[in-house]
Amino acid sequence: MVESRWLSRQEARREAQETLLDIFASANRLPIGLFERREGEVVRIASEASLDALEEPYCRALQSMPGGREACMRDQCLRAQRALDTGQEALTLCHAGLYSQALPIVVDGTARAVLLYGEMRIADPAYQAASLEKHRETMVRLGLCGAEAQRLEGLFHQVKEFSPGELEALKATLPKIGVWLYRLFDQEDRLERQVERVMHEVQTRVQAVLANAELLFYELPTIPGVKPSIRIRTNEVLNTTLALSTVVQNLGDFLEDYRFTKRPIEKLLREARRIYAAEAARREVKIFIDIEPVDGRPPELEVSEDHLQYAFNNLMHNAIKYSFRGGPGRERFVRVVGQPAGKFYSITFENYGVGILPEEIEKGLIFLDGYQGCLTRGEYRTGSGKGLYFTKRVVDRHGGKIEVTSTLVGDADRGPEGQPHLNRFTIYLPYERKKEEG
Amino acid sequence: MAWTVAWIEDDTDIIDPVVELLEREGHRILRLRSIKEALDAVGLIRECDLLLLDVILPPGEPNKEVNRYSGVDLIRRLREQHGIHVPIVVLTVVANSEVLEQLRQLGVRDIIRKPVLPSKLKERVERALRGEQESD
Fold it and tell me: Which residues of A145-175 are buried (b: 16+ CB within 10 A; e: fewer)?
């Protein structure tokens, strides 16, 4: 089974490159390296694992000598640089007398990277003479003689041999896969830039509306004769814009700039309630917040305030959005309960409404990027599938955990809004972060 | 206590209502809209209590190419070439991890993501002015 975890773009790129190289290395039993130019220097960016696993004992022996590994890496980078500069494939002879094939990955006329694979001898006398000569130069340069030189010469002759024909066959598909890999990366970069530009526009406009709404909200009470309904509407514009801000943030890249300080968490929960109060009122859902003190004082936790606010907003909004509608004779509510739980402080969001299937909880599906719950399908409630995904990341980063339960309650017959469930999302947050949680 | 902030932001829709709120409370805002305006006002920025800026800023000069994250380069120039060491707060939509890392290395005191309530922005600016220590 292949396990998937969240990867940053850089990690995903690196993993794709390493996978490509590992496929090549394991199919051909040859080490391979990928080289790119970064800030004017050529660096090997992947294949450490395949290189280590398949390295020839001859190379390993040379690299174990003082400065040996650095000399080998420098030599590889030099050969890769030549291929990058010319954009031409080449058979290259390393400083210790072994051949490698340098294959540039040329995308739209530009050499983007170089694949260097080999560490081999070539079964052809014309090549072997040059190879042996380099090997002997190396022995002299290192000042090796006697038994040590003999041992290395023995290892040199044990290095795998390839015929020129076998080498040709290896060149067939690898650069093509490389080209497509780079095209995909380029496409992804273009899309990211487009999304970023659109996000910049949207967030800038939302920022302007938000700023004006708050200014208006504070200004109205100072103006004589303003109807109360205008003030209520202004408040609603402000809170709806705040709710929109959370939606907009769900669509964008997630700001991973965590800054931890001791904060009273009740304030954050009340802010989440304020933002979604109008939506809750429309659904006739009441919101109760009950925060138990710690040692007689309001609980304070070491949190990244913006991030936790964002997580609370998402949990509060979900609880309201997926609650069944209230009304005469059917009181509906979202209850938020905070209480000490050993080394943690727990905050539970509880609602009565659309449920979550046991397998969605057990397999953690609800926390996957873009996932939408099975029981919400076909409902009028829609979401981006990002809220819980980001919420879990926030909680994880705080060194906390989330527990979820969803229990079928009351009449099991499907009503107009579906079968009712009691849903509980409990976040456990430590009072203080451990330093290693970085 | 009243303070003076240099704010580099090209979008006046964003600045206007916030500035109105802050100026009403007696604070002073030096409004700058581009890289060029900022570099022309280095002497004034140096006298401010804090610098607030976006990381995506226009050059402010015709036919002048700048990096997408021109604000990062600007901070570097102000710090390294002009010796400006006032506290810096970034207000941006950018969440690119490489950019954030560069900002941290440049000693930016706080990074606030747009959209943000003016009252919240004021709170964060005041926190940065107090030099409140926050752990990353």
Answer: eeeeeeebbebbeebeebeeeebeebeeebb
Chain B interface disruption, residue of A204, A251, A437, most B CBs within 10 A: A204
Nearest chain A residue to B13 by CA distance is A208
For residue A345, the tally of other CB atoms under 10 A from its CB is 22
DSSP string, A210-259: HHHHHHHHHHGGGSTT--HHHHHHHHHHHHHHHHHHHHHHHHS-------
Rounded Cα distance, A137 and A135, in Å: 5
What pLDDT score does A377 carry? 66
Q: Which of B19, B93, B100, B124 is most worth mutating to test chain A (most A CB atoms within 10 A of its CB)? A: B93
CA distance B36 to B32: 9
**Residue range A176-209, pLDDT digits in tens:** 888 888 888 889 888 877 877 787 788 888 888 9
Instruction: Using an 8 Å CB-CB cutoff, list chain A residues near B124.
Output: none
Element (H, E) at B45: helix B42-47
Residues A181, A168: contact at Cβ < 8 Å?
A: no
Other C-beta atoms lying within 10 Å of the C-beta of residue A265? 22
Q: How many residue pairs bridge chain A and chain B with CB atoms within 8 Å of each other?
A: 89
Cα of A201 vs its chain's centroid, Å? 24
Take residue A347 and report the two structure tokens written for it: 């905050």
Instruction: Decide if A234 contacts A220 (C-beta within 8 A).
Output: yes
- How many residues are listed for chain A in this entry? 438
Q: What is the ipTM of this complex?
A: 0.81
The CA distance from A109 to A191, in Å, is: 22
CA–CA distance from A28 to each of A45, A91, A172, B85 (Å)? Answer: 20, 17, 13, 57
Q: Is B33 exposed, middle or buried (0-12, 13-18, 19+ CB in 10 A)?
A: middle
The distance of A238 to chain B (nearest Cα, Å) reads 9
Question: Do the Cβ atoms of A99 and A131 come closer than 8 Å?
Answer: yes
Question: What b-and-e string marks burial along A12-40, b requiring 16 or more CB atoms within 10 Å of the CB?
Answer: ebeeebbebbbebbeebebbbbbbbbeee
Instruction: Say if residue B32 is exposed, middle or buried (CB neighbours under 10 Å; 0-12, 13-18, 19+).
Output: buried
Give the ranges where A64-124 is alpha helix by DSSP (H). 68-86
Regions in chain A scoring below 50 on pLDDT: 1-2, 437-438
Of A200 and B73, more confident: B73
